[in-house]
Amino acid sequence: MARRLVLLAALLLSLAAAASSSPAKYKATAASSELIHRSCRETQYPSVCEQSLSTYKSSPPPRSPQELARAALSVSVDRARDASAYVGRVCGGGPKARAGPVRDCLENMADSVDHLRSAAQEMGGAMGRKGSPAFKWHLSNVQTWCSAALTDENTCLDGLSRGVDASTRAAIRGKVVEVAQVTSNALALVNRVGPGH
């Protein structure tokens, strides 16, 4: 009997602890949603920004502009990797698909993935105190890699305008435009981490 009471008391204590911790979790999620909403208004593609970051699974949810920028970069890496894999499948589809512009696009997208991965790693590392020379240097690296990724994505899109059939061009373009939009948003969020924000 005494053993049952001890087990019952332990169960009640664990339930009470879980109940008291759930409001804090809800507040963190609500605060994260507000941060996403407020920050995405400052990007070029706000609805794409909110949708991609609201559905992105990060643990814990972003609580600061720097964590939000890191999450946006991770989203960009995922989308760029998916688009690169898609272009790779198109390249494997026959002699025309292996021709110049699609092959060049594949190389551009592979470079974009590398640049975005480097930016996300740098943003997630120890950047130093905000405003310090070390922080500015790390942030500059992130901005440079993001800009380079955007250039790669736009170069891919520009190259598709020549010598690629309309259906292949439209399919690849849809994937790469999506990546360019989330990358543009990520760069805008990275820029908000800098001094003066």
Automatic annotation (TrEMBL):
SMART domains: PMEI. Keywords: Disulfide bond, Secreted, Signal. This is Pectinesterase inhibitor domain-containing protein. InterPro entries: Invertase/methylesterase_inhib (IPR035513), Pectinesterase_inhib_dom (IPR006501), PME_Inhibitor (IPR051955). Belongs to the PMEI family. It is found in: Secreted, Extracellular space. Pfam families: PMEI. Residues 1-21 form the signal peptide. GO terms for molecular function: enzyme inhibitor activity. GO terms for cellular component: extracellular region. Residues 31-189 form the Pectinesterase inhibitor domain. It comes from the Eukaryota.
